[in-house]
Amino acid sequence: MGRANRLSRLRPGALSVKWAGDRSGALPVTAISIAAMVAGWWVLALLNGDPSVLPGPGVVLPLAWHELTQGDLIYHLAVTLRRVALAFLIAMSVGGAIGLLMGSSRGIDRWLDPWLIAFLNLPALVTIVLCYLWIGLNEAAAVTAVAINKIPTVVITIREGTRALDRQLTDVATVFRMSRRARLRHVIAPQLGPYIASAGRSGISLIWKIVLVVEFLGRSDGIGFKLHLYFQLFRVDMVLAYALSFVIVMLLIEALILRPWEARATRWRRP
Amino acid sequence: MISVAIENKRIGETQVLGPIALEIAAGETLAVVGPSGVGKTTLLRILAGLDRDFTGRVDAPARRAMVFQEPALLPWRSALDNLTLVAGVNTATARAALGEVGLGGLADRFPGQMSLGQQRRLSLARAFAAAPEVLLMDEPFVSLDAALVDEMLALTERLLAARTIATVFVTHSMAEATRLATRIVRLKGHPAMLDPSPA
């Protein structure tokens, strides 16, 4: 079982923020830690004394609730989430396909590697500005800019996973004449699973941050647009209300969708 | 059943296999013995169709199965799924094959939840479940303790006796070869060629 050991050493969660415990005993710790963070914020706000500079949770939380129930928080949240989802899907499928190609063929890898390094080191801001200049101030440019920022890191992770594919299992699939479909689904995909999960988890956390910048710079809706608006109005309370709501939604997505999926993908490793 | 006429096989600049001619009939179990590193596994990989980079010709039916040095199971699929998905058989056939190797109660276990001996038996069950015309075995009992080797040999003998398969069995152990094989050939030299005189 040397193969399983090699896989488990590359911890899929290592790249992204850990906020919920792996063991059930860690849950109260997480809750207390979050409570301490809110309390710290509250104390700072009290010490500062000026709600227009640092409004406390007592101001921001009711405001967020008000925006949620009577304002247009839901609308902007939905617009932003749609961009996150689109960019995520494009980045994962394009990056995954390129990563598979580069991982399985040395020739392709040699050709594309300089491109990969160039894109990997391209600052997010440059991609965003160029996309807006070349494609226009529209939805396609916004999603493209975000996807381009994420694709190189997906490529690297999936290429790594493809290179680590177990040769012996490939031989088994060949000797027993497994169909291409069965081979992809039962032999290759489970081996790439931890790598895909890792790329996905680090991907979503990168993408939702870049989406806000994209919206800030050139869209007229979305959370990033609202942040831009209230930044110009110097409304720290509204900036915090919108930012916090979005952070909570993204953390929920990670905890309720990505983590359970990752746990499922690695279920066979548990004794 | 299997007809082999290899002219040569090179790895880089080195010729590892010389001219090799072999005929293996259905129901026959041929043991290929020889020191480690001589090219036994290379020969077997050519017979399995895994290595096509050689000069010569191999005629063998497409329904082949192989038992590898390691169990080589899908660790993310249950024992039963390892048979249905890889050998391409239905659940009933897979269950029968598991029963035949004494793993009837472990159909839902993942390979990682089984002992090494059980994994070996599962690997054997997978090969036989595929109902192959040609069975290739690459040192299937290497790194097992003596008691387990004996158990596996007995099991393999029983499984082979109930079928008419052309089997090629690679081993460095003369004891395993004499017990399982109907014919023994020795692979030796550089490049390696067959020495038809047994032992």
UniProtKB/TrEMBL annotation, chain A:
Residue intervals of the ABC transmembrane type-1 domain: 77-257
Coiled coil segments of this chain: none
UniProt-listed Pfam families: BPD_transp_1 (PF00528)
Highest taxon above the source species: Bacteria
Topology within the bilayer: Multi-pass membrane protein
Matches recorded under CDD domains: TM_PBP2
Localization terms from the record: Cell membrane
Signal peptide (from-to): none
SUPFAM superfamilies: MetI-like (SSF161098)
Keyword entries, A-Z: Cell membrane, Membrane, Transmembrane, Transmembrane helix, Transport
Principal location class: membrane
Similarity remark: Belongs to the binding-protein-dependent transport system permease family.
Protein name: ABC transporter permease
Organism of provenance: Meridianimarinicoccus marinus
UniProtKB/TrEMBL annotation, chain B:
Keyword Membrane tagged: no
Record PANTHER family: ALIPHATIC SULFONATES IMPORT ATP-BINDING PROTEIN SSUB 2, TAURINE IMPORT ATP-BINDING PROTEIN-RELATED
Similarity remark: Belongs to the ABC transporter superfamily.
Domain ABC transporter: 2-199
Database matches in Pfam families: ABC_tran
Native source species: Meridianimarinicoccus marinus
Protein name: ABC transporter ATP-binding protein
Keywords of this entry: ATP-binding, Nucleotide-binding, Transport
InterPro entries, sorted: AAA+_ATPase (IPR003593), ABC_transporter-like_ATP-bd (IPR003439), ABC_transporter-like_CS (IPR017871), ABC_transporter_ATP-bind (IPR050166), P-loop_NTPase (IPR027417)
Alphabetized GO MF terms: ATP binding
Keyword Transport: yes
